[in-house]
Amino acid sequence: MDFLRPARWEEALAAKAEHLTAVPIAGGTDVMVEINFDHRRPEYLLDLNRIGELGEWEVGEDTVRLGASVPYTRIMEHLRAELPGLALASHTVASPQIRNRGGVGGNLGTASPAGDAHPALLAAGAEVEVESVRGSRRIPIDEFYTGVKRNALAPDELIRAIHIKKADGPQQYSKVGTRNAMVIAVCAFGLALHPETRTIRTGIGSAAPTPIRAQAAEEFLNAALDEGGFWDNGKIITPSVAKQFADLCAAACNPIDDVRGTASYRRHAVGVMARRTLTWTWESYRGTEPTAFRKGSAA
Amino acid sequence: MGTTGTPTNLTQGSRTSGGIGESTLRPDGTLKVTGDFAYSSDMWHEDMLWGHILRSPVAHAEIVSIDTSEALAQPGVYAVMTYDDLPTDVRNYGLEIQDTPVLANGRVRHHGEPVAIVAADHPETARRAAAKIRVEYRELPVVTDEASATAPDAPVLHPGRADHHAPHVPHPNIVHRQPILRGDVAEARRRADVIVEGEYVFGMQDQAFLGPESGLAVPAEDGGVDLYIATQWLHADLRQIAPVLGLPEDKVRMTLAGVGGAFGGREDLSMQIHACLLALRTGKPVKIVYNRFESFFGHVHRHPARLYYEHGATRDGKLTHLKARIVLDGGAYASSSPAVVGNAASLGAGPYVVDNVDIEAVALYTNNPPCGAMRGFGAVQACFAYEAQMDKLAAKLGMDPVEFRQLNAMEQGSLMPTGQVVDSPAPVAELLRRVKAMPMPPERQWVTTEGADVRQLPGGLSNTTHGEGVVRGVGYAVGIKNVGFSEGFDDYSTARVRMEVVGGEPVATVHTAMAEVGQGGVTVHAQIARTELGVTQVTIQPADTQVGSAGSTSASRQTYVTGGAVKNACELVREKVLEIGRRKFGSSHPAWATAELLLEGGKVVTDGGEALADLADVLEGEAVEVEEVWRHRPTEPFDLRTGQGFGHVQYSFAAHRAVVEVDTELGLVKVIELACAQDVGKALNPLSVVGQIQGGTTQGLGMAVMEEIVVDPKTAKVRNPSFTDYLIPTILDTPTIPVDVLELADEHAPYGLRGVGEAPTLSSTPAVLAAIRAATGLALDRTPVRPEHLTGTA
Amino acid sequence: MRVTFRVNGRRQEADDVWEGESLLYVLRERLGLPGSKNACEQGECGSCTVRLDGVPVCACLVAAGQVEGRDVVTVEGLADYAKERAAGGGCATHPGSCGTAGTSLDAARRWEARPTDSATGEGAQLAPIQQAFIDAGAVQCGFCTPGLLVAADEMLERNPNPSDADIREALSGNLCRCTGYEKILDAVRLAAARQSEGA
């Protein structure tokens, strides 16, 4: 094994181009587990910790450009207003120690369907900025996940940043685990209201081979909200609409039975989370629901 | 040459000068908070090698061939050993039945069974070499439950059994069978106004001690070996290790290294023999440290069980009879299965008076992971079932579940189903009363002015509910656990106590082989010495095999038995000190001859409080030392046909009230409070006692809602050997645990004390389950209960 | 490879490090600092919690090569670290580090751990959180203790008056199997109370 320690981004790209099998390591919270447990012996480890810009973010007019290695703790503490869904998701990641090291780039690189950030990114709308010595490109988040633990990166590419749409409305995130902290998702659900475009977007984790959006559910709800004039009249969403939305979200799942939960439970839980997060976000949109009390980070 | 991190004496001076009954602080506390306490995985020796174990990837197979040549050829590899390299004809070990191969002998019987061992200069070198050992397996069909294990054509896992249970078991894949028969169940059944039945499933729990199996073996110039190890019972290890190495026991010198928790999981050997074999083979010190993955294969687990229960009661709420069948899965090797069977059977009726009993308990041999000791030891599984039955009976009779239990609660003088009279306090009804009388935690604690604090809700930080679907439930349970080794086992401990003057001050030194695994035995030993010998300064020597056996740190027995041995040795030392005093100063005061003399505050005093001499003067130039074995009163085996007999030396009781909040839509549970009342006889160290109760309670909570080793029934392979998928409670899963300690002395025990550690683990699980049933209205006949069980999506 | 970094204020160098080694392994097996514990090596238990440039992290998940040139505080250096912090004004050792995640690099560089060779730890100077763990009975087997101490100390640095829910959240990455956490909560409350009395 070789340990590559580029000091600058361009050096990292050059190293990756030279050693296509090099495994990038930033927070180490995925890679080191695999090494410690002898599940993986990469030829090269490509350390990204020295590249300071990966830990930085910029808040633009419409988007936040989030460096790939910005720790979840920072997202929770500093980007709650701009990225409320991702901030909530960040708070559900493992433990304070892990949140101090791990970042969204790692979640995307691993592309596990259980990664906590994915549903929030899908719901908010995002593009992944990837780069190689050949050049830079942006991959829409909907095209990023290509299979179980597979993504759209070319072998010579590295994730540099994520461009996430700033919230223009309430966002929520829920995750089911069988413990009250430090738990991998049995399944997770993200929901974002986009009043500017009068649309809603969803994201589902751990309930299909990849993170997915519940597109039929989105289309149904977009149409229902539009037809009922809900965006303007701010009426309470009809229970039957909420139920159908929840059912369509559940139907979007393609889960498996595994040691963390049954497929049947996952489908059920996604439906419940869809209904609840819809209620929370919509009530917030209507201005009646106090924002869920999320005490300051202890990370 | 030196071994870094070897255990040192723990001396406590004037800062904590308390005797028994005081909450003195741990003598090892400072070392543990500074990081200087040397655990077994912290040992280091110059020139040491790392051992690694190659384990079976399948549960049941014939080993067709093993080729180690490529592994041996790796640079940095010093030794590779398989069954054929074992030095003597003793190639099996086991606590009671020597059925466990040191390394697989042509056949593996469970997933993760050790097949070969490697020593190399770096752990990674050892791992890579192990990966180059070529093992050809021919897979065999697996047996995984009672039906498959006892089928007529079932593969017999241990052909030609010669152990002492073999003659009385109905099938060779049954390790041991113990019936308990009393009264006339058929007649009583006819008298019953109500009958309830249940079939209960108890999952496989892991001890999940935090310090993984580890140790360091150092070859000695005399051909022996020094082993620094985390274990629960040094001498039982020694008895199993030495014959395999072909060494006399005095050439295997064992020292207890720091133990990172145990809970039963260190009662069996893990890497001890492997490290010694590699050290003797290479002539170099060898360290082995399991990682968490390997730890799940490196020790026995709690027996999963199926329990079939039928209870009857009269209309006015008196139990008429109990018919029960308890099937424990012992896995591939016996470990302590026979004793677990004895416990499950003899304690299977719970802390209730029931005159007509027909209980049968068996343990199976299967291809599942081997199971053995874990906190609660057979009594835990039974408690889950009989407490569910009590709630069902109360519901059917329209009675309050606590009142129904109190109506049938045993008390001092009651008869166990084994015919044994309970001859010390058994305040079962009182414990229930106390736990019920505790104030209830406030409702809806998640509500704040700013919205819902999700940390106070089911799902916690995962933000799954802001109060929707949340229903509160309350449940009660009580249990009975035996203390100490039972069924005629010669249960003893040894203590060496020395008293001398050091620096002008009298000092006591206590040396036992007791394994301090975190429970605080070292604290209590110092307290006993202070109480009995009147000294402030007590030194606790490291536990090793240079002193006689202390028995195991298990069965809630160490304070009773080794505490008893220390007390006894102190009393003998005191007599000798007084003899010296009489010789030196007897003529100076008549009270030396006439009064009852005590040692207090560094002086010899009369029972009237008059000081006769300073201990420093009495012991000037003389040291007193006593090593003595101490036994509790004997027990007797259970009759193999009827289960009758004086099988247990003492019983321990705890009751719990659980308050839970369940997100009934998502099936997520938050335990809000787990109140416990327990009789401890006498709290030698109240702070430690409460710590034991809270810790035991929390392990029971884990068993109720999250902890289970999942074994694939088709392959018998473990599916979740990691802390990612075997979950234990975090601090956000653990509620407040108010504890009410009752002290009703047992006149048979030292200071009247009662073993503490296990009882709270029994009743915690069924109390939580009862509370979840109350919140959801579901029957819930298995534990742990998972979200899918609460949402109809299993 | 060679890795050079500062541990508890002292420059340390480890040679012949295998590239797959973790910071935890280097601390424990190469630098003679086994206080950080190896309970799970998968970031699930917090027993190996150390501060990396002031931030609490699981040492098992930091690749050895990633600490080159950086500052690490382990449980062995906690007492001196706390002492230095107290001398610096009771909050953090460096302006700007209080209320955010930990202590700055410069601040961390200003102090050094004293050697301790006491066999039993008698007379050792302890950080307030260490003393509170002993006094409250929060230590049983002690294997989780080092990580909990580092995590709890850092929380009290940021949040001197935590609610119980705050304590639980901050320590939710540290598993304990012995205590049921009640005495650990007591210890953190005790340390917080003593800290505010002393302030």
3D structure, described in words:
The complex is a heterotrimer of chains A (299), B (794) and C (199). Chain A is α+β, with helices and mostly antiparallel strands and 299 residues long. Among the domains of chain A are: 1-49, Uridine Diphospho-n-acetylenolpyruvylglucosamine Reductase, domain 2; 171-286, CO dehydrogenase flavoprotein, C-terminal domain (Enolase-like, domain 1, 2-Layer Sandwich), CATH 3.30.390.50. Helices cover 35% and strands 22% of the residues of chain A. Chain A has helices at residues 9-18, 31-36, 72-78, 84-91, 96-99, 104-110, 117-124, 215-227, 230-233, 239-252, 263-286; strands spanning 2-4, 23-25, 44-47, 57-59, 63-67, 126-132, 135-140, 145-147, 150-151, 158-165, 171-176, 187-194, 199-205. In chain A, helix 8 (215-227) runs antiparallel to helix 10 (239-252). The longest helix of chain A is centred in the C-terminal third of the chain and has 24 residues, at 263-286. Chain A is globular and about 60 Å long. The model of chain A is unreliable at 289-299 (pLDDT under 50). Chain B is an alpha+beta fold and 794 residues long. In chain B, strand 26 (492-502) and strand 27 form a beta hairpin. Chain B has 4 domains: 44-140 and 212-259 and 266-298, Aldehyde Oxidoreductase, domain 3 (Alpha-Beta Complex); 146-206 and 304-379, Aldehyde oxidase/xanthine dehydrogenase, molybdopterin binding domain (Aldehyde Oxidoreductase, domain 4, 2-Layer Sandwich), CATH 3.30.365; 420-484 and 647-790, Aldehyde Oxidoreductase, domain 4; 492-631, 2-Layer Sandwich (Aldehyde Oxidoreductase, domain 4). In chain C, helix 4 (128-135) crosses helix 7 (182-198). Chain C has a 5-stranded mixed β-sheet with strand order 2-1-5-3-4, sandwiched between helices. Chain C has 2 domains: 3-73, Beta-grasp domain (Ubiquitin-like (UB roll), Roll); 75-198, Orthogonal Bundle (DNA polymerase, domain 1). Chain C is an alpha+beta fold and 199 residues long. In chain C, a hairpin with a 2-residue loop joins strand 3 and strand 4 (55-58). Chain C is built from 7 helices and 5 strands, in the order E-E-H-E-E-E-H-H-H-H-H-H. Chains in contact: A-B, A-C, B-C.
